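Justification of resources, computational component.

The compute hours requested in this renewal are based largely on the per-chain cost of generating structure records like the one below. Each record pairs the submitted sequence with a full structure-token output. That output is archived, and it is also reused by downstream analysis tasks.
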Amino acid sequence: MCKVLIFSCISAVMLMTAAYGAPLSTEKMHLLTALIRDLEILGESKDKIHLELYTPNEKEECSWRTLQCYLTEMSTLENEIEKEDLYCLQNIKKNLQSLMDLIPPGTGCKICEANDKKKFPAFHHDLSNFLKYMLK
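The structure output for this chain reads:
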């Protein structure tokens, strides 16, 4: 009887974790918060950036590949942004890489170049929304 009760409790916890997601680690929450803040700062210059960047649309099941694509596309911004935004961009890239190190790579996800290109304001909006989604 005791074994059945213990097994039932463990099963309930596993189902709750699967349904609601595991709680975020402190490190992951800190990285996401820093990324969102730095993106807001970079967003102040979004009207000055005239690039089209590959923008992932596979979000939930392909988080690692999505972050990898955003990181790759952020590298193309270095020559396009103002000097005062360079430090912010470097922080974003460093934090995206650190966040990727905390997430297992997905399988069956498309490569970055298979996504549509969007102008920087739309790219910025989608990246911000994705990070906010991950923060929940």
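Strands lie at 52-54, 117-119. The longest strand covers residues 52-54.
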